[in-house]
Specification:
Blueprint lengths: L1 E7 L3 E2 L9 H18 L4 E10 L5 E2 L2 E10 L2 H22 L2 E6 L10 H14 L14 H7 L28 H15 L1
Antiparallel strand pairs: 1-5, 1-6, 2-4, 3-5
């Protein structure tokens, strides 16, 4: 689930910080508390933040700050449950600091369900021709989850590396053209096996 959290306080001159409500400090408190929450949770939850923003000029404490991130889990229920716990933390911080907050949620991709029958049928067939690695559950946001809720599904990653190692969403990731043929062969093998 995409999540944005805005902290709305009041700016003040750095010489008179008590005259404001520092939104950046509220965000820092939230980050510490959310880390503690992650360490205590029993669910398989990922709470990752990729963007932080606060302040306008060097001599004014921030009256506004914002973070943008994602909550991911192995089930939609885990994600919603974690979101509710985040809201509780934000309420506590609001009470302590007077800094208000606003949560905006965006896309929420459901978990991908790999059909066990399909897996058991396709794993040995694909292993004959390809290196088949069961990489387990991953916390990547995946719209294929919508399909897997509706139809029996088998999702796989087609390995395309020839030694290079670039992370997800990296502009240097550019698979070689011959991977198209390999992908075509994998799909043909799957279709012939069903």
């Amino acid at each position: 689930m995409e999540i944005d959290i805005e902290f709305i306080g009041e700016s003040a001159h750095v010489a008179f910080p008590s005259e404001g409500k520092n939104a950046f400090n509220a965000m820092r408190m939230f980050l510490d508390n959310s880390d503690d929450l992650l360490n205590r949770t029993r669910d398989s939850i990922l709470f990752g933040i990729g963007k932080y923003a606060a302040g306008d000029v060097r001599n004014i404490t921030p009256g506004y700050s914002k973070l943008e991130g994602s909550i991911r889990g192995e089930s939609g229920g885990e994600v919603i449950g974690f979101l509710e716990r985040i809201k509780s933390i934000l309420e506590e911080i609001k009470t302590m600091t007077g800094v208000h907050y606003k949560i905006t949620t965006g896309a929420h991709y459901p978990e991908v369900i790999v059909n066990e029958e399909l897996y058991k049928k396709l794993q040995p067939v694909l292993s004959e021709e390809f290196i088949f690695i069961d990489c387990g559950s991953k916390m990547t946001g995946e719209d294929f989850g919508f399909f897997s809720k509706k139809w029996p599904s088998f999702m796989f990653w087609l390995g395309s590396s020839k030694g290079e190692r670039y992370g997800l969403h990296n502009p240097k990731f550019l698979p070689q053209d011959d991977i198209i043929e390999k992908g075509k062969t994998v799909f043909t093998t799957i279709l012939k096996s069903l």
